[in-house]
Design goal:
The chain contains twelve helices and eleven strands. The protein is of the alpha/beta class.
Length: 323
C-alpha cells in the first residue's frame, strides 16, 4: 500500500476508537472473560517473549487471563491479518513490532488494511544490535563491513523473516556502507537463532539473541539504539561505532482492530502506562531485550505515522525489495 493511501485510510478512520456512550456502563466490566493476544511469530522469539511478559502483568492487573496465541507465518502477515479482521470488542489484541504493521505493507501486498489496526499503547523499545557467531572472528561493526566489502555476498545475515526489523536493519547497514550481505530469512527469531548458534549463518540483529550474547555464545558488535544498553554498557552504539543514521528502530505495540470502544482502549493504555512505571519492570523487559517507553495515544499515532514515512523513504532510496 502506498503512503498516500495509508494516510488517507488513517485520516478517514480518525482515532479508530468508538466512544459508544450508550454502552459505557457495559464496557466498564471489561474484561469479563479471557483476552487473546495474538503474536504473529512463533514461540521463543523476541516478540513472543515480550508478549508473555505483558500477558502475565495484564492478567494480574485485570484479574482475567490474557492468553498469548502464536500465529506465525508469511513474515507476520497471518497473525496480523487474524487480529485485523477480528471483532473489535477488546477480546482479541495483537502484540507486534513495526515489522508486520509498518514494514511489511510497504514491501508487499498484504491481506489486511494497515489502517484497520490501530496502536493502543507502546510496550517496549528493543535494545539489541548486530551480533556474530564467534567463529567469524569479527570483533566490531567495522570488521563486519570491511569483510563484506572484501567478500561480497559471503557474509550470511539471518532474520526473523522478510520485512522484519532484523531484515530491515541489515538492509539499512548495507545501504549506508555500500556493502552486500546474503540475507537468509526464517519463520521467526527462534528458528534463526538456532542456526546462528550452530554457525550455519554468520550474524543477526534481533532481541532473541540477547540471552545467548550474555551467555558468551555470540559476540555483540554494537547496539542499535540512541543510548547504550544497560545489559552491555561497554558495547558502542551504532553511531559511536562510526555509522550514524544507520538504524531502523524496532518498537512494539499492543494493537487493536479499528472500532474498539474507547473506554477499553483507555483502560488498557492507562494500565500498561501504570505498570511501566513499576520498579521491577525495566529488569523484566530487559529479559526480552526491551526498555520501557510511555506516550499518550495521540503521540503514539503520530509516531506510527512518522515511522511509516521514514520507512517508506528508506525502501525507496535503498531500492529494497523482497526476494
Amino acid at each position: 500500500m502506498r503512503r498516500r493511501t495509508f494516510l488517507k485510510l488513517a485520516a478517514g478512520a480518525g482515532s479508530g476508537l468508538v466512544a459508544f456512550p450508550a454502552v459505557v456502563g457495559a464496557q466498564a466490566a471489561w474484561p469479563s472473560k479471557p483476552v487473546k493476544i495474538i503474536v504473529p511469530f512463533g514461540a521463543g522469539g523476541g516478540t513472543d517473549n515480550l508478549a508473555r511478559f505483558w500477558a502475565e502483568k495484564l492478567s494480574q492487573a485485570f484479574g482475567q487471563p490474557f492468553v498469548v496465541e502464536n500465529r506465525g507465518g508469511a513474515s507476520g502477515m497471518i497473525g496480523t491479518e487474524a487480529a485485523a479482521k477480528s471483532a473489535p470488542d477488546g477480546y482479541t489484541l495483537l502484540l507486534s513490532s513495526n515489522s508486520s504493521t509498518v514494514n511489511l505493507p510497504l514491501l508487499r501486498k498484504v491481506s489486511y488494511e494497515p489502517a484497520s489496526l490501530l496502536p493502543v499503547v507502546r510496550v517496549g523499545d528493543a535494545v539489541t544490535g548486530f551480533c556474530v557467531h564467534p567463529s567469524t572472528g569479527l570483533k566490531s561493526v567495522k570488521d563486519l563491513v570491511d569483510f563484506a566489502r572484501a567478500n561480497p555476498g559471503k557474509l550470511t545475515g539471518c532474520s526473523a523473516g522478510l520485512a522484519t526489523s532484523s531484515h530491515m536493519r541489515m538492509e539499512m547497514l548495507a545501504y549506508r556502507t555500500g556493502v552486500s550481505f546474503l540475507h537468509v530469512p526464517y519463520r521467526g527469531g527462534a528458528d534463526a537463532l538456532n542456526d546462528l548458534l550452530a554457525g550455519t549463518v554468520n550474524f543477526m540483529n534481533d532481541p532473541s539473541c540477547n540471552p545467548s550474547i550474555k551467555a558468551g555464545k555470540l559476540d555483540l558488535l554494537c547496539v542499535n539504539h540512541s543510548t547504550r544498553s544497560p545489559e552491555f554498557p561497554d558495547v558502542l552504539t551504532l553511531t559511536e561505532a562510526g555509522y550514524p543514521n544507520s538504524d531502523v528502530p524496532l518498537w512494539f505495540c499492543i494493537w487493536a482492530p479499528a472500532g474498539m470502544p474507547r473506554p477499553i482502549a483507555d483502560a488498557l493504555h492507562a494500565k500498561v502506562t501504570e505498570i511501566s512505571k513499576a520498579p521491577d519492570v525495566p529488569a523484566g523487559l530487559l529479559l526480552s531485550g526491551n526498555l520501557p517507553v510511555t506516550s499518550t495515544q495521540a503521540e503514539l499515532v503520530a509516531f506510527r505515522d512518522a515511522e511509516w514515512k521514514s520507512t517508506s523513504d528508506l525502501i525507496r532510496e535503498a531500492k529494497i525489495k523482497l526476494e
